[in-house]
Design a protein that fits this description.
71 residues; alpha+beta; 4 strands; 31% helix; globular
Length: 71
């Protein structure tokens, strides 16, 4: 099983993103908890590990922006 890990800082918070190959041209990205288990957040898919991780990071950025606007 091919696995990639990315670390992102979004609005000052650190996130670990893990990406696994589903097929040769399809990758699934999801957040990893500090205990190294996956979260319940829906996975994001892309054609490459970078694309899948970027989609998840972009979603987190938008979600944090929306949360900050309503505070």
């Amino acid at each position: 099983m091919i696995k990639h890990r990315f670390e992102e800082t979004i609005n000052g918070r650190g996130y670990k993103i893990e990406v696994l190959a589903v097929r040769p041209d399809r990758w699934r990205a999801y957040l990893v908890r500090r205990t190294d288990g996956p979260t319940a957040l829906m996975p994001f898919y892309g054609r490459t590990p970078d694309e899948a991780a970027r989609q998840l990071a972009d979603w987190l950025t938008r979600a944090h922006g929306t949360a900050n606007e309503t505070s």
